[in-house]
TrEMBL record:
The keyword Hydrolase applies. Pfam families: Abhydrolase_6. This is Alpha/beta hydrolase. Residues 24-248 form the AB hydrolase-1 domain. Gene3D superfamilies: alpha/beta hydrolase (3.40.50.1820). Keywords: Hydrolase. GO terms for molecular function: hydrolase activity. Coiled coil: none annotated. The keyword Hydrolase applies.
Amino acid sequence: MEKRGGNGMAWTYTESGPIDAPLLLFVHGGGVGGWMWDRQVEHFRHAHCLVPEWSEQDGTGEDELFTIEKSAEALIRLAERKSAGRPIVAVGFSLGAQIVMQMMSDRPDLLSGAMLGSGSIYPASLARPLVGPLISLFYSLMRSRKFAALQARSLYVPGEQFDTYYAHSLGISRAGLIRTVRESLGYRLPAGFAYSTARLLVTVGEEESGSMRRSARDLAQMRAGSELVVRPGIGHGFSLAQPEAFNALLARWLEEGGLLPRRGSGR
């Protein structure tokens, strides 16, 4: 694990797998941590896996505040430094998917592939001003174990990871949470996304909001050859709700695109 602070933001990451294999970058969503990808890292242990972790604590200066743009900048530098010219595939969930979209827009030639799960591309202009008052009103409740259990259930956090999830929740500051949610709700897909050369897989839960499903459909339609997968019977959290199906889908898509060799085959 290593701390990074080149643009003022505090990042850490974990690294595993053979360093000469294709690079898989797993970017977590808001309200959860890198631990959400534990079962993916275990499954793809024949790849070189990087799992960055960013803090939802509020920084002490303007340059330390979380933004999607600064997060993408930090991960572009990390991916460039670690890839050594090998293919890079980024997998993002929710806010993490928005960060990956920003990476694709800022550096259209960087990624060989991207799997975008439940990432919104349409700003929620009406909801965004309400974020601060609502979080301030319910912040104490949000830190209770019972409320956290309800939230964990809605995100499909497995029982064995609940304590990790709850500890993570307690570490989120009020200001950091407000800023993170506002960032996500205000995100608009940059024009540069159209120039990305990455192969694209988009996923969304069948029971997610209409806006989220529309975002997924429109993302996939922007790029010729993209694949859209709508998972039946689930809401927000495909990789946590159905990890085996998620891993099988990602493995199949990577192998079909020549982005990762099958297990047991030579590189």
